[in-house]
Design brief:
It contains 10 helices and 9 strands. Strand 7 and strand 8 form a beta hairpin.
């Protein structure tokens, strides 16, 4: 998390009169918030240059907590809540700090069902249908997990069954776990009736490790250093123009 405080404004504050001093809390809070806005905008502008086709969800994953007169601290960090999906902190933090990425929801389900071996993770295969951002289309992933009965108890009704309705969808006929030397290596997809008419939809791989790609804190420190004093001068001028005498 990037925290922006009033440190470094000593020179500007020392030149103010007693009357001006009364405007300091308002001006300081305003300057800190505007600086945090500058930091947030700079990090968001960097994302398309370091990520391959970032989604709108990625580009809108930062949260700004503004400063107040009674709390002279503005903060910029990654959103840590989500609606029916993983919070942004879970998948964006490894891009900031580097290191191993956490489990995806699909990986946790496959592992719990005994389909995905311990220590293995999933990545799109050559037979996966990808969206404009390079991610597997959610509908196709649902079909694949249904076909191999990969859903857990909470999503059990999504698994393929022997019912007429389920058989009509042909998910169980299209997707299956592919093994080599007795070990599962991925989820395959049948593309025709011949034995060789198949492709890898999801491959089982060793745990991915990320290098730090988004210089979140470096950008924040640079922009805050460049903008804080200027923003304070602007905010103080605004406060003095609008003060009550």
């Amino acid at each position: 998390m990037i925290k922006i405080t009033a440190q470094g404004l000593t020179d500007q504050l020392s030149e103010l009169t007693d009357l001006d001093q009364r405007q300091i809390p308002f001006a300081t809070a305003l300057a800190l918030t505007r600086t945090a806005q500058d930091v947030k905008a700079a990090i968001e502008a960097e994302m398309p240059t370091v990520f391959d086709r970032p989604t709108n969800w990625t580009l809108n994953s930062l949260r700004l907590i503004p400063a107040r007169k009674d709390r002279l601290l503005a903060r910029v960090w990654i959103k840590d809540e989500a609606d029916k999906s993983s919070p942004a902190t879970k998948w964006l933090a490894p891009e900031v700090y580097g290191g191993d990425r956490p489990d995806k929801r699909s990986e946790a389900m496959l592992r719990a069902r005994g389909i995905l071996p311990a220590g293995k993770y999933v990545v799109p295969g050559a037979g996966a249908d990808l969206d404009q951002y390079g991610n597997i289309k959610r509908g196709q992933l649902t079909k694949a997990l249904s076909g191999i009965r990969g859903f857990g108890e909470t999503g059990y009704n999504a698994n393929a069954t022997d019912s007429r309705r389920s058989l009509a969808k042909r998910n169980a006929q299209s997707f299956f776990v592919l093994s080599k030397a007795g070990k599962p290596i991925g989820i395959a997809r049948r593309t025709g009736r011949k034995r060789e008419d198949l492709s890898i939809f999801l491959a089982f791989v060793d745990k991915p490790t990320y290098r730090k790609r988004l210089d979140f804190f470096g950008i924040g420190e640079r922009v805050a250093s460049e903008r804080l004093a200027f923003n304070f001068e602007e905010a103080m001028a605004q406060a003095l123009r609008t003060r009550r005498r």
